[in-house]
Amino acid sequence: MNKPRILLVNPPIYDFSAHDFWLKPYGLLTVGGYLRNLAELSLFDYLDRRHPLIPPDSRLKIDRFGRGQFLAETISKPSLFSSIPRYYHRYGLPRQVFREFMAGKGPFDHVLVQTVMTYWYPGVREVIEDIRELSPRATIILGGVYATLCPKHARNQGADLVIEGQNLAPLWDHLGMRPDLTALPYWDGYKNLEVGILKLADGCPFKCTYCSVPQIHPRFEARSLDRSIEELKYLVRLGVTQVAFYDDALLYNSHHILFPFLEKVLSENIRVQFHTPNALNARFIDKETAALMVRAGFKTFYLGFESNAYEWQKKTGGKVYSDEFTEAVWNLETAGADLRNITAYLIVGHPQGNLQNVEESMRFAHNLGIRVMLSEFSPIPGTPDGESLRATVDLDEPLAHNKVFFAHSFLGGQELNRLKILYKQLNQMSSLLQQP
Ligand code: B12
Ligand code: SF4
User: Fold this and answer.
1) Three-state secondary structure along the chain?
2) pLDDT tens across 253-274, in order?
3) Looking at the whole model, is its pTM more than 0.85?
4) Which ligand is nearest to the CA of 346?
């Protein structure tokens, strides 16, 4: 009997801005891996910057750690965003390329679609529309963050099944399959691969009031060390040189999770460059941790700082305080990390922004010699901070969770621009001071 034909899709992004900050559809590839031996699999990742069909003259900028630009086209804004004086874009491979792919490879029996940011759902809707037209008999299944945080909204987009959270049982029932849960993620679906993703644990023991991780993964749970090492070796065999961690709490319980992993990386002489786009908790970067991370190949360090105001830190969950942050930076520098590759994330546009002292917080991080990056607050349904805004923000419309939209509406364009100009100036100053 022929195996069912299953297509995995990572949709294009519709947003004001998007950058390939080690973005890979890791959840989708994990599920795809479970099905590898049971189905005839194909992958279409609109955000694959190394896709063979990317026009060779597109000249997308890429840096030495594998981050870079996406193909982008300016499109008209949804009416909700009409007051925001910024261009809105569609990022990823052109729609026509997907049509050509489907003409050659389609039709499919089932299509699994990755969802990530809630406010990126227009890209998911585009994919559903195209599949309905080009492979009308395929069933369409959504999973991932948007499907988990906004299941009701996701169910209205025209898919056949929406998988919420980690429970994949409805998927196996729908497909009529018994998956192989030991199989490795479907990274072999890419023709050219430079960047890979790992996750050593799920969840986070903290409960910051602006964050939805406690809803997505209610328990902190380590993954198997042997499996993570196997995943890493497999990535290396496929040509990967840059590995980003998608952990929410990479440094929690590190003596039992990260340390054994890195010791194995060192003892087996696995050479890749590690990155932490999803913010590390600086509280846990003591001397020993910093030294081991640098030795094992960590190159970029993104630290969740958010604010240097004690009241704000305490009120939002107390994940890190300023003295702990300072010590972490010092420990990393002493271990040999390049200050130019250490970045403090600062939340901006937070509803308790009056307590947060954004400008002072930026200067505080800058004075430590590191980079600053502003991350606009996204109001997420189900989180204490998101819910506190329900009377004024339509949380049932995921476009309203857009970080640029919310920060513009909350702070005003002028203030947001002022803060953005300031952080860019501070970063430029650091670059000048740190030039070799
Ligand atoms: C990695 C990550 C990023 C990466 C990018 C990831 C990407 N691919 O796009 C980076 C660091 C760039 C990033 C940035 C931001 N992020 Co982020 N990020 C995440 C994180 C940690 C993982 C998301 C992910 O890829 N999940 C997929 C995998 C890893 O999930 P998994 O659970 O292991 O998968 C299992 C199941 O979920 C399921 N599954 C998963 N996918 C699929 C697909 C199918 C088809 C099926 C059937 C099943 C399935 O099966 C899997 C196996 O069991 C989440 C938090 C989290 N823990 O989910 C936040 C999260 C998505 N981010 C969030 C936020 C707020 C942001 C920022 C706005 C922060 C900021 N203020 O700047 C920015 C936005 C950037 C932008 N351009 O707008 C929010 C969501 C906000 C929202 N409104 O949607 C989250 C939920 C965290 C939070 N604070 O609440 N992020
Ligand atoms: S420490 Fe990070 S992942 Fe954990 S709840 Fe706070 S913001 Fe979310």
Assistant:
1) CCCCEEEEEECCEEECCCCECCCCCHHHHHHHHHHCCCCEEEEEECCCCCCCCCCHHHCCCECCCCCECCCEEEECCCHHHCCCCCCEEEECCCHHHHHHHHHHHCCCCEEEEEECCHHHHHHHHHHHHHHHHHCCCCEEEEEEHHHHHCHHHHHCCCCCEECCCCCCHHHHHHHCCCCCCCCCCCHHHCCCCCEEEECCEECCCCCCCCCCHHHHCCCCEECCHHHHHHHHHHHHHCCCCEEEECCCCCCCCCCCCHHHHHHHHHHCCCCCEEECCCCECHHHCCHHHHHHHHHHCECCEEEECCCCCHHHHHHCCCCCCHHHHHHHHHHHHHHCCCHHHEEEEEEECCCCHHHCCHHHHHHHHHHCCCEEEEEECCCCCCCHHHHCCCCCCCCCCHHHHCHHHHHHHHHCHHHHHHHHHHHHHHHHHHHHHHCC
2) 999 999 999 999 999 999 999 9
3) yes
4) 1
Q: Is the pLDDT of residue 353 over 80?
A: no
Going 68 to 343 to 218 to 199, the CA torsion angle's sign is positive
- Type of residue at 382: G
Q: Calculate how far, in angstroms, residue 142's C-alpha sits from the geometric centre of ligand 1.
A: 14
Bridge pairing between strands 139-144 and 110-115: parallel
Joined tokens for residue 177:
């399959």
Q: Which of 212, 221, 302, 303 to mutate to test the pocket of ligand 1 (most atoms within 8 A of CB)?
A: 212
Ligand that lies nearest to the alpha carbon of residue 215, given by its number in the listed order: 1
Cα–ligand 2 centroid distance for 185 (angstroms)? 25
Cα(346) to centroid(ligand 2), Å: 13
Work out the pLDDT band at 251, boundaries 50, 70, 90. Answer: very high
206 in ligand 2 pocket by Cβ < 6 Å?
yes
Ligand nearest to the CA of 400: 1
Please answer whether residues 75 and 91 qualify as being in contact, where contact means their C-beta atoms are separated by less than 8 angstroms.
no
Q: Which atom of ligand 2 is nearest to the CA of 212?
A: 8
Confidence of residue 352 (pLDDT cuts 50, 70, 90): confident
Look at ligand 1, atom 65, and give the residue with the nearest C-alpha: 378
* Ligand 1 near 389 CB (within 6 A): no
The Cα 186–Cα 32 span in angstroms is: 5
